[in-house]
C-alpha cells in the first residue's frame, strides 16, 4: 500500500517556519511589554522623586528667607549699637571739651 501524503513537504516547512516566526514575534512582544511596565515603574519613581525635590526646595527657600531676615535684623541691631556708641563718644568728647575749658 502506498502512503498518502496529506501535506507536501514544502508546505510543512513553510508552516514550521511561520510558526517559529510567530513564536519569535510573541517573545519580542512579551519583552516589549515587560520593558514598558518597568519603564512605567521608573517613570512613577522619577515623578515621586521630582515632587519630593520640589517640596524640599520650597522648604529650603522658606528657610533661607527666614535666615536672611534674621541676619538682616542682627545687622541692623549691630549698626544701631555702633551709632549709639559713636554718639556717646561724641557727647563725652563734647562735654569734656566744653567743661575742660573752665
Q: What can you see in these coordinates?
A:
The chain is mainly alpha-helical. The model has no long low-confidence stretch (mean pLDDT 88). The protein is built from 1 helix and no strands. The longest helix is centred in the middle third of the chain and has 92 residues.
Keywords:
102 residues; mainly alpha; 90% helix; single chain
How does the SSE layout of this entry go?
Layout: H1 9-100
What is Rg? Answer: 44 Å
N/C terminus separation? 155 Å
Q: What is the percent of helical residues?
A: over 70%
What is the β-strand count? 0
Shape: rod-shaped
Strand content: under 5%
Task: Report low-confidence residues grouped into runs of 5 or more.
Answer: none
- Tally of contiguous helical segments: 1
Oligomeric form: single chain
Derived structural class: mainly alpha
Arithmetic mean pLDDT: 88
Give me the strand/helix succession: H
The biggest beta sheet reads: none
Explain briefly what this protein structure is.
This protein is mainly alpha-helical.
Amino acid at each position: 500500500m502506498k502512503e498518502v501524503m496529506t501535506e507536501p513537504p514544502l508546505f510543512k516547512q513553510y508552516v514550521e517556519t511561520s510558526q517559529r516566526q510567530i513564536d519569535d514575534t510573541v517573545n519580542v512582544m512579551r519583552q516589549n511589554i515587560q520593558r514598558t511596565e518597568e519603564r512605567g515603574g521608573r517613570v512613577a519613581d522619577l515623578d515621586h522623586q521630582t515632587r519630593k525635590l520640589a517640596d524640599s526646595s520650597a522648604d529650603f527657600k522658606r528657610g533661607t528667607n527666614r535666615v536672611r531676615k534674621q541676619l538682616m535684623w542682627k545687622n541692623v541691631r549691630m549698626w544701631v549699637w555702633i551709632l549709639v556708641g559713636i554718639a556717646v563718644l561724641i557727647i563725652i568728647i563734647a562735654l569734656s571739651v566744653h567743661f575742660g575749658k573752665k
